[in-house]
Amino acid sequence: MSKRTAIIDIGSNSARMAIFEKSSRFAFHLIDETKSRVRIGEGAYNFGGVLQEPALKRAFTTLEEFGHIIKGFKCNKVLCIATSALRDAPNASTFINKIHNELNINIKVIEGKKEAYYGAVGALNYLKEIKDAVTIDIGGGSTELARIENGIIVDTISLNIGTVRLKELFFDKKIPLADIRSFIHKELEKIPEHFTSNDMIGIGGTLRSLSKIIMERTNYPLKTVHGFEYEITSHAPFVNAIVSSDVLGLKVLGVRKDRYDTMREGCIIFQSVLQKLGCQKMITSGAGIREGAYLCDLLRSSNHKFNPDFKLSLRSFKDRFSIVEDENLYIKKVANLLFDTLSPIHNIPVKYKWELSVAAELLNIGIKLGFYQNQMHSFYFILNNLNYGFSHEQKILIAMLVKYHVNKLPSEEDMNTYKALLPDIQTVQWLSFLLALSKAINSDMSRSKIALSYQNHTLTIQAEKKTFLGT
């Protein structure tokens, strides 16, 4: 696998490029992301799918500029995929040959089922553990669904309903919503019954934009949209308000200007699919087709899925920022021993032992940025980047433990901003104390063999060597 890989996704609405850099065998991180609203499908749906010259010129210019960025980052590999608009276009081959001959970029047009598969692969590997769900990716020309059962992608489907397609065929012509719903409903009849699921994973710009608006409306404490979850029925009236709104109303509802021409279209598709599948919970994925394409290349020998014990963000953090990984693993071991030994008095649910372990592995990554106040650097690193493989609750707890493992335990006031996502204060304080004590035991970095016991309200620590620095 190449050190740096560029993935280009040419959709009906936007062309996007992501550049990934590897840090170890399976770990990597995003180093650049570029988007252009090319609208390559614009005008095509009223002309039998034929791509129009203004849109083709925009697409060419965008890919030409993507090429400059690829050279600037010295990418070793480029994968360029195209979806619905080029899939449907009678003149696609002319454009593809022009890009190959003049820009040396090879475009691969993928089928709808492959597009759905890539999106599901990205979501499965980037989100917390997913057992049973259906993914939905609402694009400009089509909508893709994938069914996940027991953590495995078992079926995919692509439907010819998308935001740009609906805009040009219906919304621009002021066709009544009832007729639009009837058109969508006919296409949704193709979805097999086994796609019904309680949990839905939202992929793509429309659903990420919707999640961002809901986060703002509910004063959600984090800014990270990836991994954000909400109960669908609680926000159904808001989705309906978007569908029924005019452009001025969209602004009042909090829709960004660049989404005015596709948000209603996307939400009416979302609304219709929900009615068909009966989903109750939405899980937002920041990963989609580009990440899925990259992972299918990276994980081609392991069924396109990380080992269950592998956490992408954790390994990537450690590759780039850990300065004493062996010491941190020792602190993790001690923290787990302390957790077990003191369990009769702290009564913390055993599930939090894992967050304690991860905090131990990441407690000093901020030193790479600067030694003084390094726990604050670590806190912000974790808060903003420990996204892949972790829920929001797990991420904020780990960040808080790292922040308060020195000097003092967190207070109610310290926890107030993130209170909705954290366990009770006693749990957080206990876990912070366990992490701090584990670090103190290894202050001299000798990784001494220790034995712990708790009797008669006394914790006894027997070490092979004296631990003067930690006392």
Summarize the structure in words.
With 471 residues, this protein is an alpha/beta fold. The chain folds into three domains: 4-109, ATPase, nucleotide binding domain (Nucleotidyltransferase, domain 5); 113-291, 2-Layer Sandwich (Nucleotidyltransferase, domain 5), CATH 3.30.420.150; 312-470, Hypothetical protein af1432, CATH 1.10.3210. Helices cover 45% and strands 17% of the residues. Strand 1 and strand 2 form a beta hairpin. Helix 8 (236-244) packs across helix 10 (263-277). The protein is globular, with a radius of gyration of 25 Å. The mean pLDDT is 95.
Output the structural class. alpha/beta
The total beta strand count reads 13
**Radius of gyration (Å):** 25 Å
CATH homologous superfamily caption of the largest domain: Exopolyphosphatase. Domain 2
Strand content: 15-25%
The top level CATH class name of the largest domain? Alpha Beta
- How far from one another are the termini? 48 Å
The order of strands across the largest sheet is 8-7-6-9-11-10
**CATH topology category name of the largest domain:** Nucleotidyltransferase, domain 5
By CATH, the architecture of the largest domain is named 2-Layer Sandwich
Shape: globular
Average pLDDT figure:
95
The low-confidence parts are: none
Number of helices: 19
How would a textbook summarize the main sheet? Answer: 6 strands, mixed
Helix content: 40-55%
Tally of structural domains? 3
Domain Ppx/GppA phosphatase C-terminal: 313-462
GO molecular function, one term: guanosine-5'-triphosphate,3'-diphosphate diphosphatase activity
Keywords: Hydrolase
InterPro entries: ATPase_NBD (IPR043129), GppA/Ppx_hydrolase (IPR050273), Ppx_GppA_C (IPR048950), Ppx_GppA_N (IPR003695), PyroPPase_GppA_Ppx (IPR030673)
